[in-house]
Design a protein that fits this description.
The structure is a single chain. This protein is an all-alpha fold. The protein has a single domain, classed as Type II deoxyuridine triphosphatase (all-alpha NTP pyrophosphatase fold). The protein contains six helices and no strands. Helix 4 packs antiparallel against helix 5. Pfam families: dUTPase_2. InterPro entries: dUTPase/dCTP_pyrophosphatase, UCP030140. It comes from Bacillus spongiae.
């Protein structure tokens, strides 16, 4: 898992460099973008829509949305200069509902607005761990998450070429 994560971070750094946005509002925009992506993911799972009988989207669509958020998890870690060489160990899937996990992640993401470079490594590590756990709660393996990340990263590079 650690080697995969380090490769994912390097791949994200390449995309970051290609995008090239380095304005002073970058951090705040990343936090907001991550919140939006988390909301889009929740919407596709329909986990909170107690008023609706419509089923969740297909697993493929949910994984794609999850992958969008994973890009921002990595991006925010890069932004605060997190040391990704720190070993990560993902504990078991949490004994919470998906809704509770979405709410926990939303709180963690909002707190990131106030984080600065070089700080908050402890909290970022928990955010990264909890986002990976969300993928597990949604039924994805680590291998599926990694593959989906690379697939979406390729799409993101193509979008940069076309002026998306």
């Amino acid at each position: 898992m650690q080697n995969d994560l380090l490769k994912l971070v390097e791949t994200q750094r390449e995309l970051r460099k290609r995008i090239g946005y380095n304005e002073s509002d970058r951090h705040e925009k990343l936090v907001l973008a991550f919140l939006v992506e988390l909301g889009e993911l929740a919407n596709e799972t329909r986990c909170f829509k107690f008023w609706s009988k419509k089923p969740p989207s297909e697993k493929k669509k949910i994984l794609e949305e999850y992958s969008d958020g994973f890009h921002f998890v990595l991006e925010l870690g890069i932004e605060i200069e997190y040391d990704f060489s720190e070993p990560i160990t993902i504990s078991d899937v949490p004994n919470t509902t998906i809704e509770q996990h979405f709410l926990k992640l939303s709180q963690q993401i909002c707190s990131m607005r106030y984080w600065s470079k070089g700080g908050n490594a402890f909290f970022y590590k928990h955010l990264l761990d909890d986002y990976i756990k969300l993928g597990m709660l949604l039924g994805f393996s680590w291998e599926e998450i990694v593959q989906a990340y690379y697939k979406k990263n390729e799409i993101n590079h193509t979008r940069q070429e076309s002026g998306y």
